[in-house]
Amino acid sequence: MKLVVFLFFWVCTFHLGNRLQAQVIEPDYKKMIESYYESFPLIHPELLQSSLKNDSEMVILDTREREEFAVSHIPGARYFGYENKNWKSLAGLSKDTEIIVYCSIGARSQNIGKELKRKGYTNVKNLYGGVFLWANQRRPLEDNRGIPTNKVHVYDEDWGKWIKNAEAVYE
What is the pTM assigned to this prediction? Predict the structure, then answer.
């Protein structure tokens, strides 16, 4: 009986510990990303991941550049881009479709989100913390071939310093 109780507490502690670790946001990272944010609707990573598991009807747009998307992106995300926007990725969507935008930290995607709202899309949210926070919380990523990966594209060492639980790629 003692062994059963021990195993139960060990499993609960391990599972809860991993969940809590996934929720932690480094204070300096939080301060940095929030310095870029304006008043725009946000969705937090845990809610997005939960929605993905529930097959929620939403579209996720990666607003980074093609080479960033190729290294890794959130599974199911559509490439949209920033400089050269892929408007075809919105073909056939109704204006009230839930659209989640993200980039590295949330600044570029916030700009794209504002542009989508100006074009009449009414249900647009920005992923809080971007793909950097998503990766740091050990949430799933895939590469351009759909293969799970632990890599995240960063521009240089200055941006790479924010990646703690994934491999920073500077290509």
Answer: 0.85
